[in-house]
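An example makes the point: we let one protein speak, the chain in one-letter code, the fold tokenised, and here it is:
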Amino acid sequence: MPEVKTNAMRVLDKAGLAYRHHNYDAADGHIDGVSVAQKMGQNLQQVFKTLVTKGSSGNYFVFVIPVAAELDRKAAARSVGEKAVDLIPVKDINRVTGYIRGGCSPIGMKKAYRTVFDSAALTQPTIFVSGGRIGTQIEAEPQGLITLLGAQTAHLTT
């Protein structure tokens, strides 16, 4: 049976960006980033989670940070020139991004939001981000993802 491509994979294919997709078993309901990294046997410093926020301006911003880290909201706000940023409610993730919690990829959202990767991404040869569906991860070279998404980097974690 052929692999069903996610929107994130189609975006990468169209851009010609090399990546590998990985699947993991999500049947136990443990879909948080640390659990996903452990299921895949990957280094926690290499697996990144996608956080969607809303700034005090009303604009949405995407932050991509290591799965075991916490977002420093003040540093995140500074990185995008906002007074403050807050995580959006889980119920709003699909409406804003087109993805669901646990399958939210920084690649291929409904709209291109300003995206910032934690600078730790650049210390890894490859990083893993959600593949756009629960049970799927994409592994790619971080600078390639950052360039493709028109993203920036900043220190974003506490």
